[in-house]
Structure formats: C-alpha cells, structure tokens
Specification:
With 270 residues, this protein is of the alpha/beta class. The chain is 44% helix and 14% strand. It has two domains: 6-218, Alpha-Beta Barrel (TIM Barrel), CATH 3.20.20.60; 222-264, no CATH class. The strands form two sheets. An eight-stranded parallel beta sheet has the order 6-5-4-3-2-1-8-7. Strands 9-10 form a two-stranded antiparallel ribbon.
Length: 270
C-alpha cells in the first residue's frame, strides 16, 4: 500500500468542515484537538468528533501534548474514538507515546510531531516505540523553540536529521511541516518539492487548495517516469556489460532510483 503523502488539518470543533476536508482529496485528514481548539471548547470538540460519520481509516487525531492540562482527558477520549492514527504534538518522551498507545486500547498508528530541540534529540527513541511508523515536523514551533527564523535555510539541519533518523530506524520518510501562506497554493507545492528532494515523504497542509499542488510535487513528473521506464527497459534487455541510458551508466543505485520512481507513480509492477 502506498504511504500517505497529503495530511490536511481540520479543527475538531468545526464539524461543519469535516465533509469538505474529506472531499478535498487528501490522503489523511488530521482532526485537530490541539492548537485549533480553544481550551473551553475541547470537550464539545471531542463530542463532535466521536458523533460524526467519518472515514475513520483516513483520520489522524491530533491530541494535546503531554504537558497540556487536558492531555489526560484526550487520552481517555482515545478509547471512544476509532481514528486509525494519533498524532502527538511536541513529542519528546517515548513514555508519552506508549501512554497514547495504551489508552487507545487497540492497534493504532502513532505519529510523533517534532516541534522542539528535545524532540529532535529524542527522535531515535521515539521512532522505536511500537506503533510509530513515521514522524512529522512542526517547523514553526521548532523554530520558536531554538530561536531561529522559520525559514528553509535555518531549519535545513533539523529537516535533514529527521530524514536520516527515519531511515536509520527503518521508518517511513517523515512528513514535512505546513505552508502558512494560504494565498498562494503554488508555494505549498514548491515547498513540498523542496522537502521531497531532501527525502521527505509527505507534507502537512492547512487548506484544501494546498492538497493538489502538494500531491503533484511528490508524484514523479512525466519526464521522470519516462526516464525510469527507459532505464528498466535497458536492464531488461539483458545486454552483457555496462548499460547506459541518456549517456548515464546504469548501476545499482540508478536502477533502484528508477524502480522507486515507478513505484511512486503507482506502477506496482516496476
């Protein structure tokens, strides 16, 4: 099964928006109980979520962080909410993720969101918690935590570490943070393309208009697909000795890159 690429946020206390969020075409919908919901509205938000008719296999429930005064209430809610995945913001301690898993009382995908320096330092341990298959980046909070500008260059090391540690842990490629600019969906696509070049496998989005450009950014282009098909066709020819395609020698890394391109394009026979 292809890993999810687009993750669209919707506030948990706005059930009128749930339908539009699911119709936007995102692979997953993050029903957000954390920053998007005022403290006094969280109880009503939980009730709205659990009484809604949702495609629960596509739901990621983002709960409050472990230091929040309502963390225990969110944990208690997990037993009643059949979401397929749970995102823990400001994840720093494996024990907190283990509590989330235990509170759910079932197999659930856990997504630690790295938003602090401590969280990044603890990433190997977080990825080792049963149920965790990938991490997400919260770059705005991370930049605030380390006193950096929330700009690409300033956070390049953090993003690279997320990719590296995910690979070392055998996890899926991580999910990059949001694009805050709602007026220019193309910017979300451009930032998604940059994240893809670094090795990310998906991106958080905050508006339905961002879904399509982000999905396109992670999908292989027609030129990439055509190149990959030429590479694999040359290899299938069985010619003795070295094989070259477009003037480039095809060795094992090149062949594997071609297979991955076609796999991302949905050509499972690659």
């Amino acid at each position: 099964m292809t890993a999810a690429v687009t993750f669209l946020f919707v506030p948990a206390d706005r059930p009128g928006r749930f339908g539009k969020a699911f119709a936007a075409g995102a692979d997953r919908v993050i029903v957000d109980l954390e920053d998007a919901v005022r403290p006094e509205a969280k109880a009503a938000a939980r009730a709205a979520v659990v009484t809604s008719d949702l495609d629960w296999d596509r739901v990621v429930l983002r709960i409050s962080d472990a230091a929040s005064p309502v963390f225990a209430e969110d944990l208690a809610f997990l037993a009643r909410c059949p979401a397929a995945a749970v995102m823990l913001p400001k994840a720093e301690m494996p024990e907190a993720l283990a509590r989330v898993r235990a509170a759910a009382g079932r197999e659930v995908e856990l997504i630690p969101q790295i938003e602090t320096a401590r969280g990044l330092a603890a990433l190997p341990a977080l990825l080792a918690v049963p149920g965790v298959c990938r991490a997400a980046f919260g770059h705005l909070d991370f930049a605030l935590d380390i006193g950096a500008a929330p700009e690409w260059e300033a956070l390049l090391l953090a993003r690279s570490r997320l990719v590296l540690e995910s690979r070392l842990a055998g996890a899926l490629p991580p999910i990059d943070g949001i694009t805050a600019d709602l007026a220019d969906p193309a910017l979300a696509g451009a930032e998604a393309a940059a994240a893809r070049r670094l090795g990310f496998g998906g991106k958080l989005v905050i508006h339905p208009a961002q879904v399509a450009p982000v999905a396109r950014a992670f999908a292989p282009t027609e030129a990439e697909r055509a190149w990959a098909e030429r590479v694999l066709a040359a290899l299938a020819g069985g010619t003795a000795g070295a094989v070259a395609v477009d003037g480039q020698m095809v060795d094992r890394p090149v062949a594997e890159a071609a297979r991955r391109i076609l796999a991302r394009a949905g050509q499972s026979d690659a």
